[in-house]
TrEMBL record:
Enzyme Commission designation: 4.4.1.2
Top-level division of the source organism's lineage: Bacteria
Cofactor list: pyridoxal 5'-phosphate
Catalytic activity: L-methionine + H2O = methanethiol + 2-oxobutanoate + NH4(+); L-homocysteine + H2O = 2-oxobutanoate + hydrogen sulfide + NH4(+) + H(+)
Organism: Streptosporangium carneum
Root EC class: lyase
Family to which the UniProt record says this protein belongs: Belongs to the trans-sulfuration enzymes family.
CDD domains given in the database record: CGS_like
Pfam families: Cys_Met_Meta_PP
Protein name in the entry: homocysteine desulfhydrase
C-alpha cells in the first residue's frame, strides 16, 4: 500500500509498462499531454511535427499513426491530420496564401471549398481565376506574377469529371506554383496525385478513408518537407489538428479501404450500366461510360472509376424528386464514401449556391440525382432502384 493519501493515489494512476509484448491494434492515446524525464527532450518536441510527443494539438501517437499511414499510401514525405476535410483544406489555403496573392482553381469545386475561396477573396484580397479541370493551356493563360497556387479535385462532385492531373500539375510546376489536389473521391487506391506531379494532396477522411459514416476528419499529405512544416505550423496555430479517437476510427477504416473500394467500384459500374439502359433514365454521368466527357482521361489515369455517379430521369425534376422519395434501401442523406448507399439532389443541396445557368454549364440538371454507392449486395440495390423507378 502506498504511503500517499487516496486523493493523490486516485490522481496518479498506475501505468504498467509494456513488458515483452505490444498491442496488435493501434491504441487510442486519449491524453492531452505527455510526461518527460528530460527537459531537453521536452523542448525538442515543441517546434516540429515529427519530434517527441508533447501536447495533443501538436502531435499524438494515434494521430501520427494515421498521418504515417496516409503519407505512405499517397507517397508523401509527411502528413497533417485534421478535425475535418475543411480543416485540412483551410490549413493549406490559409497557411500558404497571403493578401495580394492569386490562385487558380477548377470549377465547380466541393461547396465548402468554394465558400472558403470566396472568403479568401472577400476578406483577404486574394484573387482567383477559374479554369476547366482538364485544360493546361487555360491554366498557363491564367497565371499572373502574383499567382501562388493551383487547386484541383481528382474526381469532382456530382457528375464525376476527372482532372488532367499530369497536364495541370506540369503546367503549375512550369510556372513555379504549388498544386493542391483534393483526392477524396478517388482515395489513394484509385489515384496518387503526388505521382502525377502534385505538391499537396488533401482528403476529407470523413469519406472513403474512414468509410463507416461515423467520424469526421481530414488530412493533407506533402511532397516536400518545407510545405509539410509550413502547413503543420498553421494547422497547430489554428487548432485544426485531429483528435486521437477520430484518428483511431479512421485508422480502423483504412484497414479495409482496398476491399471497400473494390466493392464500391463494382456496385457503381453495375448500377451505372443498368441505369444507362433503363427507359426512364435520360443520362448517366459516370466516367466509366464512353459517353462521359472524362472517359478517355479517366481510362488513362484511374484503374477504376470510383463510387459516385449521377443520373437524370426522362421526367426531369418531378421524376427525380419522386425517385428520391421512393427509394427504401438507399438513404436520402449528405456525404459519401461510407458503406451505405446515399442519394441526394445536388441542385437544392450540395450545389444550391450555383445559378441555373452554372448548374447547366457543369452538366447538373434540375432533376439530377447523385448516388454515393455503398457496399451492399448489388441485386438488393438494383431491386431498390427498380422499384423506385417504377
Ligand atoms: C471532395 C470533398 N472535399 C472536402 C470535403 C469536406 O470535408 P469535411 O466535411 O470532412 O470537412 C468534402 C465533404 O463533403 C468533399 O466531398
Amino acid at each position: 500500500m502506498s504511503e500517499l493519501r487516496p486523493e493523490t493515489r486516485t490522481v496518479h494512476l498506475p501505468q504498467p509498462p509494456l513488458n515483452g509484448s505490444r498491442p496488435i491494434a493501434v491504441p487510442i492515446y486519449q491524453t492531452s499531454g505527455f510526461v518527460f524525464e528530460d527537459p531537453a527532450v521536452f523542448a525538442d518536441g515543441m517546434g516540429r511535427p515529427d519530434g517527441p510527443f508533447v501536447y495533443g494539438r501538436l502531435s499524438n501517437p494515434t494521430v501520427r499513426s494515421l498521418e504515417e499511414a496516409v503519407a505512405d499510401l499517397e507517397g508523401g514525405v509527411g502528413a497533417v491530420a485534421t478535425a475535418s476535410g475543411m480543416g485540412a483544406i483551410n490549413s493549406v489555403l490559409f497557411g500558404l496564401l497571403k493578401p495580394g496573392d492569386h490562385l487558380i482553381a477548377q470549377k465547380p469545386l466541393y461547396g465548402g471549398t468554394a465558400t472558403a475561396i470566396n472568403d479568401l477573396v472577400r476578406r483577404f484580397q486574394i484573387g482567383v481565376s477559374y479554369v476547366p479541370e482538364d485544360d493546361p493551356a487555360a491554366l498557363r493563360a491564367a497565371v499572373r506574377p502574383e499567382t501562388k497556387l493551383v487547386y484541383l479535385e481528382t474526381i469532382a462532385n456530382p457528375v464525376a469529371q476527372v482532372a488532367d492531373l499530369p497536364g495541370m500539375c506540369a503546367a503549375a510546376r512550369e510556372a513555379g506554383l504549388v498544386s493542391v489536389v483534393d483526392n477524396t473521391f478517388a482515395s489513394p487506391i484509385l489515384c496518387r496525385p503526388l505521382e502525377h506531379g502534385a505538391d499537396i494532396v488533401v482528403h476529407s477522411t470523413t469519406k472513403y478513408l474512414s468509410g463507416h459514416t461515423d467520424v469526421l476528419g481530414g488530412i493533407a499529405v506533402f511532397a516536400s518537407e518545407e510545405l509539410y512544416r509550413t502547413v503543420w505550423h498553421f494547422a497547430v496555430e489554428l487548432g485544426a489538428t485531429a483528435d486521437p479517437f477520430a484518428a483511431w476510427l479512421t485508422l480502423r477504416g483504412i484497414q479495409t479501404l482496398p476491399l471497400r473500394m473494390e466493392r464500391h467500384c463494382f456496385n457503381t459500374r453495375e448500377l451505372a450500366l443498368r441505369l444507362d439502359n433503363h427507359p426512364a433514365v435520360s443520362a448517366v454521368h459516370w466516367p466509366g461510360l464512353p459517353s462521359h466527357r472524362s472517359h478517355p482521361l479517366a481510362r488513362r489515369l484511374l484503374p477504376d472509376f470510383g463510387g459516385v455517379f449521377s443520373f437524370d430521369l426522362v421526367g426531369g425534376r418531378a421524376a427525380g424528386e419522386k425517385f428520391m422519395s421512393s427509394v427504401r434501401l438507399a438513404l436520402l442523406a449528405p456525404s459519401l464514401g461510407g458503406v451505405e448507399t446515399l442519394i441526394l439532389h445536388p441542385a437544392t443541396t450540395s450545389h444550391r449556391s450555383l445559378t441555373v445557368e452554372e448548374l447547366a454549364r457543369h452538366g447538373i440538371g434540375e432533376g439530377t440525382v447523385r448516388v454515393a454507392v455503398g457496399i451492399e449486395h448489388i441485386e438488393d440495390l438494383w431491386a431498390d432502384f427498380q422499384q423506385a423507378l417504377s
